[in-house]
């Protein structure tokens, strides 16, 4: 019998499955949470970079417009330069660092807002050639001059269909990107602003960056048109990316939640195991581990309801003279017998039937889907088996009696068949025990009252001391309460400890040889009955004169045995 509330293998399997599901679910949740926070922050970074880029896009167009204005006002239709310095000074502002002209023929023109910086000399020849061929505005940077950093913007000038040269402006890098820088600082992002070295180059040149480094930045790049340079802004949060920390917090919460859910599941599984155990205890015999009366009938009733037309056979089984040796040898031995019988019946029935103990030494077996004839092979195995226990180096043998009835020939109701099997069992008891009999309806009801008197009742209440022992070796097989009382023993255990299971050990020493010789003569003469007077010793060592009556019988289990009564004289 399992301990109360103990979980079974299926319970552990259930918990293992639950743990696996929770583990997979938590792992997926953590991964999705990490990915969600990561994508969300990266998307925000890309949006910030895009907004920053849009803040200086107008300045790109403005620079182109200034160049066109310089071209229009200072270069005539025939290519003559008119009042460049004056026109340049009129366009001067805090944003514009200088203007310049680079004609193919003629002198270069430079106008710087502060100092004498010849921006025209800083123009990259390769970019100038690219601007001429592509007829596009080109931005060049960064250019170092006068301790500051500048961006040069220039575009080709054509007059009368011929390439005249370049017109351009210079802007201070900080001023050009001031709006973008302010936007990025306000939203708390570190940044890098880069430009491709040439419109066709895949390499980028760093123009400006924040004081703190960009860590694992995200970028946004754009190209005003196909002929212009590519611009890129790379950003990262000033405090670093926090999606890992947020994902870790969510993961910790998910792990705690998973542990809590699993703990609740463990408690629920244990609770259900406890409830199941309570139900099992109500239907399982605690000593033998098989069904009790309630469990047996519940199981059989369920079979009848599920298969109303299927045959089955019910057998009532009783341990012959169980009460006698249960009291003689003790309940511990009796319990071992009950367990042994339950095990034997379970092995015989196996998957073919239901086995139950209905009380005391009575058992029931229902052979499912089998007629009485089909069940007889199993019933015969039960009755023909050799049942015994070893007790104090001797074998205690016992037998089983069986009465059985089958459905549907002898009835269809469970209660009806149980009663019929019970009647058949009574008939077996009256006719010799250790046998099996099918219900016939011809039971000897007038003789059943005799079964109310068990061998135990007779042995306990007979008014003389009775002792039974083997003629061959003198081994005591049985003593009744009268013998124990005569010799002063409280129980059978003390008696066997003193006499060591030998009948001659109760004989007084001065009569021992005489009794031994007499028993040998009694055996040699093959007498059936006789008497002898001698002395026995009680537990305290005192001698008691008795008249012993001897009767020799043949027992199928033990061979020749002597029934001996003792009466004091």
UniProtKB/TrEMBL annotation:
Cited SMART domains: GGDEF
Keywords: Membrane, Transmembrane, Transmembrane helix
An example Gene Ontology molecular-function term: diguanylate cyclase activity
Annotated Gene3D superfamilies: 3.30.70.270, PAS domain (3.30.450.20)
Domain of life: Bacteria
Residues spanning the membrane: 12-30, 253-273
Start and end residues of each GGDEF domain: 310-441
Keyword Cell division: no
Pfam families named in the record: GGDEF, PAS_8
Matches recorded under InterPro entries: Diguanylate_Cyclase (IPR050469), GGDEF_dom (IPR000160), Nucleotide_cyclase (IPR029787), PAS (IPR000014), PAS-like_dom_sf (IPR035965), Rev_trsase/Diguanyl_cyclase (IPR043128)
Entry-linked NCBIfam families: GGDEF
Protein name stated in the entry: Diguanylate cyclase
């Amino acid at each position: 019998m399992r301990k109360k509330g103990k979980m079974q293998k299926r319970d552990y399997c259930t918990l293992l499955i639950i743990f696996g599901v929770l583990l997979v679910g938590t792992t997926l949740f953590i991964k999705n949470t990490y990915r969600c926070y990561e994508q969300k922050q990266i998307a925000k970074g890309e949006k910030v970079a895009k907004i920053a880029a849009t803040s200086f896009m107008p300045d790109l167009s403005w620079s182109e417009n200034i160049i066109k204005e310089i071209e229009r006002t200072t270069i005539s239709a025939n290519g003559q330069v008119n009042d460049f310095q004056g026109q340049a000074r009129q366009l001067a502002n805090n944003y514009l660092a200088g203007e310049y002209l680079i004609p193919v023929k003629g002198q270069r023109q430079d106008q710087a807002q502060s100092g004498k910086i010849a921006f025209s000399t800083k123009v990259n020849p390769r970019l100038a050639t690219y601007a001429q061929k592509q007829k596009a505005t080109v931005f060049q940077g960064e250019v170092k001059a006068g301790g500051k950093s500048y961006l040069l913007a220039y575009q080709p000038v054509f007059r009368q269909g011929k390439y005249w040269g370049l017109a351009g402006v210079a802007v201070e890098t900080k001023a050009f990107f001031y709006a973008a820088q302010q936007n990025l600082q306000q939203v708390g992002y570190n940044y890098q602003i880069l430009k491709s070295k040439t419109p066709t180059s895949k390499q980028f040149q760093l123009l400006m960056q924040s004081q703190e480094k960009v860590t694992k930045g995200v970028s946004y790049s754009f190209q005003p048109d196909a002929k212009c340079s590519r611009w890129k802004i790379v950003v990262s949060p000033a405090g670093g990316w926090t999606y890992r920390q947020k994902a870790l917090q969510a993961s910790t919460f998910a792990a705690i939640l998973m542990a809590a859910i699993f703990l609740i599941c463990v408690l629920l599984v244990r609770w259900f195991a406890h409830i199941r155990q309570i139900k099992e205890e109500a239907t399982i015999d605690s000593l033998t581990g098989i069904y009790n009366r309630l469990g047996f009938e519940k199981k059989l009733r369920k079979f009848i309801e599920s298969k109303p037309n299927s045959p089955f056979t019910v057998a009532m089984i009783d341990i012959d003279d169980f009460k006698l040796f249960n009291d003689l040898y003790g309940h511990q031995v009796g319990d071992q017998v009950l367990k042994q019988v339950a095990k034997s019946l379970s092995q015989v029935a196996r998957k073919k039937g239901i086995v139950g103990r209905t009380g005391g030494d009575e058992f029931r077996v229902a052979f499912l889907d089998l007629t009485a004839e089909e069940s007889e092979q199993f019933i015969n195995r039960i009755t023909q088996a050799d049942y015994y226990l070893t007790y104090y180096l001797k074998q205690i043998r016992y037998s089983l009696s069986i009465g059985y009835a089958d459905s549907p020939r002898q009835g269809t109701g469970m209660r009806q068949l149980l009663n019929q099997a019970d009647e058949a069992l009574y008939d077996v008891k009256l006719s010799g025990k250790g046998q099996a009999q099918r219900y016939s309806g011809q039971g000897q009801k007038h003789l059943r009252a005799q079964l109310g008197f068990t061998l135990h009742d007779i042995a306990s209440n007979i008014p003389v001391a009775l002792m039974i022992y083997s003629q061959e070796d003198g081994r005591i097989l049985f003593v009744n309460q009268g013998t124990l009382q005569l010799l002063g023993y409280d129980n059978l255990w003390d008696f066997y400890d003193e006499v060591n299971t030998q009948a001659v050990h109760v004989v007084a020493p001065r009569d021992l040889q005489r009794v031994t010789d007499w028993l040998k003569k009694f055996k040699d003469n093959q007498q059936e009955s006789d008497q002898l007077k001698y002395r026995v010793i009680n537990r305290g060592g005192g001698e008691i004169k008795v008249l012993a009556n001897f009767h020799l019988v043949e027992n199928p289990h033990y061979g020749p045995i002597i029934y001996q009564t003792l009466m004091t004289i």
